[in-house]
Specification:
239 residues; KR_dom; alpha/beta; binds NADP nicotinamide-adenine-dinucleotide phosphate; NAD(P)-bd_dom_sf; Rossmann fold; seven-stranded parallel beta sheet; oxidoreductase activity
Length: 239
């Protein structure tokens, strides 16, 4: 069987290296996209994979990505949509543009990227998206982020029904904060025991882009590591 040909969007971000490394190690044929040309070039060199600087949240950019993958591999077998953004702040201080931005980063980018490649998934395919437990359990000051990820999850679960008869599997990884060097630098106060290693997320992405996940359509797979919601009121869970 030939190695799957996948588009990895937003590969320039925190989870990119772990995910790309895992899939490249498996022998997948990868096209990485992002808007940061310099970072993309570094990743392309390091993992010896195709890259394309484009914005997949724009329909023309998403079509360009699909065409580049077809030109490079002659086929497309799926999408790993790492594109995303994060904003925090009390809802009454967030202006409408911040909400629109979150919807574009976390939801509409998935719609445009997916629409561009769907016509090419003629032998079925694997689509993987990323959310957060906050989509189900929204915390204060995260309204725009939580709402945009909740929209993404509802959309994926809906399209999964539409796509399954064509052998296309659309699933979501729900993850907590990733334990990346950047995050450790930005937030030295954080309890890293509650964070999840990008390599653990990458293993689940490998599963969701393989025949091992044939039974999953529209699933939300939690990859939370040892994360737990805690509250001063609830007391500590038993150890
Ligand atoms: N890291 C975490 O702790 C965490 C936790 C829960 C969920 N997630 C989700 O998991 C996914 C991957 O995480 P990550 O940390 O790798 O994400 P990230 O670093 O925040 O973002 C990934 C990439 O998305 C691209 N991007 C952002 N907004 C975009 C837009 N409007 N249009 C096109 N591209 C855009 C950026 O690439 P360019 O600037 O090069 O285009 C960025 O490098 C994201 O969906 C994220 O929300 C992450």
């Amino acid at each position: 069987m030939t190695a799957p040909a996948l588009i990895v969007t937003g590969a320039t971000g925190g989870l990119g290296p772990a995910v790309v490394s895992r899939l490249a190690e498996r022998g997948d044929r990868l096209l990485l996209t992002g808007r940061d040309k310099a970072r993309l070039a570094e990743l392309g060199k390091e993992y010896d994979v195709e890259t394309l600087a484009t914005d997949v949240s724009d329909p023309a950019g998403a079509r360009e990505a699909a065409e580049a993958a077809l030109a490079a591999f002659g086929r497309i077998d799926g999408l790993v949509h790492l594109v995303g953004g994060f904003r925090a702040g009390p809802y009454f201080l967030m202006d409408p543009a911040a909400y629109e931005g979150m919807l574009r980063d976390n939801f509409l980018s998935a719609v445009t990227a997916t629409q561009a490649l769907l016509p090419h998934l003629t032998d079925g395919g694997r689509l993987v998206y990323f959310s957060t437990p906050l989509a189900d359990e929204p915390m204060p000051a995260l309204s725009a982020y939580a709402a945009s990820k909740a929209a993404l999850v509802a959309w994926v679960r809906s399209i999964a029904h539409e796509l399954k008869r064509g052998g296309v599997h659309a699933n979501v990884v729900s993850m907590t904060m990733a334990d990346t060097p950047q995050k450790r630098r930005e937030r030295p106060d954080l309890d890293t025991d509650h964070m999840v290693a990008p390599e653990l997320v990458a293993r689940v992405v490998a599963f969701l882009t393989s025949a091992e996940s044939d039974g999953l359509y529209g699933s939300v797979v939690p990859v939370l590591g040892r994360f737990e919601f805690t509250s001063e009121l609830s007391g500590r869970p038993p150890r």
